[in-house]
């Protein structure tokens, strides 16, 4: 299934009550992620590791879709200065595996948020969570950072491996876009 979603450029307020985010480029790539969704916490932690980010992200508990949307938008906004600073490429493209899954992520800071994906996890459940909540995260992330984001699943069936591959590739593509080496080792 192919999906293309143009997104509104409105950005969440990172100073909103119950929402805290800090993202800094660092070789240590330490993360503390508390979205209220353990699977998303793991995936965002992978992204931080592969993007070489020190990341602190905390979202007040609520409905899963609202938590994912808030987390994605806040993270996107927090990364925008790193993606647009002098010396940043502003684009990146990486393919990475996780188990049998292989995902490719290409992104560009375009100011025209868009997510294009051939990944359909709408019927999948990962860690007790409907995996389409991850789509909400990616859409709000792209809107927060003003990204055109292409996600391609090249191989893979296991939803957990598919998501790990996507978020690892997202992190490495962000590292490239920020002009940093990936910290995925």
What does this protein look like?
The structure is a single chain. This protein is α+β, with helices and mostly antiparallel strands and about 180 residues long. It contains four helices and ten strands; from the N terminus they run βββαβαβββββαβα. It has helices spanning about 40-50, 65-85, 130-145, 160-180, and strands spanning about 5, 20-25, 30-35, 55-60, 90-100, 100-110, 115, 125, 130, 145-155. Mean pLDDT is about 85; it is low at about 5-15.
For the biggest β-sheet, the strand order reads 1-7-10-6-5
Q: Could you tell me the radius of gyration in angstroms?
A: 15 Å
Give the uncertain stretches in residue-range form.
5-15
Q: Give the rounded overall mean pLDDT.
A: 85
The span between the termini is 32 Å
Proportion of β residues? 25-35%
Main beta sheet strand tally, sense and closure:
5 strands, mixed
Percent range for helical residues? Answer: 25-40%
Which quaternary structure do these chains form?
single chain
* Total number of helices: 4
Q: What is the H/E order?
A: EEEHEHEEEEEHEH
Report the structural category: alpha+beta
Shape, per Cα inertia axes: globular
**Based on DSSP secondary structure assignment, what is the total number of beta strands?**
10
Task: Outline the secondary-structure elements.
Elements: E1 3-6, E2 19-25, E3 31-34, H1 38-51, E4 53-59, H2 64-84, E5 91-98, E6 101-109, E7 114-117, E8 125-126, E9 129-130, H3 132-145, E10 147-155, H4 159-178
Parallel strand pairs: 3-4, 7-10
Antiparallel strand pairs: 1-7, 2-4, 5-6, 6-10, 8-9
Helix pairs in contact: 1-4, 2-3
């Amino acid at each position: 299934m192919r999906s293309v979603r143009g997104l509104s450029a409105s950005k969440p307020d990172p100073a909103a009550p119950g929402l805290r985010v800090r993202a800094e480029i660092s070789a240590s790539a330490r993360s503390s992620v508390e979205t209220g969704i353990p699977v998303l916490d793991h995936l965002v932690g992978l992204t931080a590791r592969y993007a070489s980010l020190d990341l602190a992200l905390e979202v007040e508990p609520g409905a899963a879709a609202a938590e994912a949307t808030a987390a994605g938008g806040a993270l996107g906004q927090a990364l925008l200065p790193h993606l647009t600073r002098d010396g940043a490429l502003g684009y990146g493209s990486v393919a990475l595996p996780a188990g049998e899954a292989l995902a490719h992520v290409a992104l560009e800071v375009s100011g025209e948020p868009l997510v294009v994906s051939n990944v359909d996890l709408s019927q999948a459940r990962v860690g007790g969570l409907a995996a389409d909540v991850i789509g909400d995260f990616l859409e709000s992330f792209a809107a927060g950072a003003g990204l055109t984001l292409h996600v391609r699943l090249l191989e893979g069936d296991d939803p957990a491996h598919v998501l790990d591959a996507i978020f690892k590739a997202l992190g490495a593509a962000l590292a490239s876009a920020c002009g940093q080496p990936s910290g995925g080792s």
